[in-house]
Specification:
Elements lengths: L1 H7 E14 L7 E3 L5 E8 L4 E8 L2 E7 L7 E2 L4 E6 L4 E6 L3 H24 L1 H8 L25 H87 L6 H110 L1
Helix pairs in contact: 2-3, 4-5
Length: 360
């Protein structure tokens, strides 16, 4: 079904990004859907007036999403964006290498969504039928692979066995190092995802902190005004108590005392809010520390990948040298066999000559 649809669809836009899917258990963490950056493309089916987002990782389709007018692509950081697919009951996330790539994909997503809305408005009946279709399940796209033919060479059997053993050893070492590099890439991808999440949380905390600082400044001004009013009222109460009957009535004293108590309760509430904001500042510093640790770990993984790449290059050079040595030894062995054949032929002639001499 997937390949049949692809034959009817035309590509309209393509980019490269790291693909993630939301964890179905927690609905909060991201799970990498590809080991490295893959192509993410928009396709248009002119027969059904349907737009789809398709991405293939390895031999399987990791994104097969029909774009609907209700979808929204949200940029959660400078290089990361996401959208929800209700048909597949999941959320897709894309991590781009540059901000420009993210902006281009966001604009294309909006353009395709508007086109899908217009197509739905023009053909309501056809669109209603399309909404009942389920997304095609990813299928294997691997082609049949054939093993290379086995090469046979002339020469002693023990030489052939030694060459095959050397090839197997070098190939296994190369595969092992490639596997290590692949694992390092996955770890780096996980750290990049964690870094994107920390950046998003950091931006939200910074905005909340700025707002809290503005509120604290305003509340401090109000606190000063309330303190001044409290002092003034206390002075009036002291004057009333000092003058006794010469001042206002007892009713006015009660009103002033009540106002003073209300102001003190308000001051206490504002103090509690200030303590809460200060605790939020502590959480922000912890997030900053976690982000710095993630950056440090990401740099360590990059250094490890560089070391693994260097080791692979050295292994490939050693493999090339070993193959050259094997070819040289095979050439010398073939030359020795040819010389030996000539010597055997000469000895045979000499034997026949000696037999003739003995017969005479």
């Amino acid at each position: 079904m997937f390949s049949h649809h692809r034959e009817r669809e035309q590509p309209i836009f393509s980019t490269r990004a790291h693909v993630f899917q939301i964890d179905p258990a927690t609905k909060r963490n991201w799970i990498p859907a590809s080991k490295h950056a893959v192509s993410v493309s928009f396709f248009f089916d002119s027969n059904r007036n349907v737009y789809r987002i398709i991405s293939v990782g390895g031999t399987k389709a990791i994104i097969n999403c029909i774009v609907t007018p209700s979808m929204t692509f949200t940029k959660t950081s400078q290089k990361f964006g996401q959208w929800a697919d209700s048909r597949a009951n999941t959320v897709y996330g894309l991590g781009f290498a540059t901000e420009q790539q993210l902006q281009q994909f966001s604009e294309k997503f909006k353009e395709v969504k508007d086109a899908a809305r217009l197509a739905r408005e023009k053909s309501q009946d056809k669109e209603l039928a399309n909404t009942a279709l389920s997304i095609a399940a990813p299928q294997d796209l691997s082609d049949d692979l054939q093993s290379p033919p086995v090469m046979c060479v002339n020469g002693p059997e023990d030489k052939l066995y030694r060459s095959q053993s050397a090839d197997i050893t070098l190939s296994s070492e190369k595969e092992r190092i490639k596997k290590m590099l692949s694992e390092g890439s996955i770890c780096e991808l996980n750290l990049e995802t964690e870094f994107f999440t920390l950046q998003d949380s950091n931006s939200k905390l910074v905005a909340a902190l700025h707002e809290a600082n503005a509120n604290v400044a305003q509340w401090k001004k109000q606190l000063v005004a309330y303190q001044e009013e409290t002092e003034r009222l206390r002075e009036q109460v002291a004057d009333l108590e000092a003058h006794g009957g010469h001042g206002p009535s007892d009713l006015l004293k009660d009103e002033l005392t009540q106002s003073l108590e209300e102001l003190e309760a308000l001051l206490k509430a504002k103090d509690e809010e200030i303590h809460i904001l200060q605790s939020k500042k502590t959480d922000y510093h912890e997030i900053e520390r976690d982000r710095d640790q993630a950056i440090h770990r990401l740099r360590e993984v990059e250094m490890r990948n560089s070391e693994l790449e260097r080791r692979i290059q050295n292994t490939e050079q050693n493999l090339s040298i070993s193959l050259e040595d094997r070819d040289r030894i095979d050439t010398e062995l073939q030359r020795a066999i040819e010389i030996l054949d000539i010597k055997i032929f000469d000895l045979n002639d000499l034997r026949q000559s000696l037999v003739k001499l003995m017969d005479k």
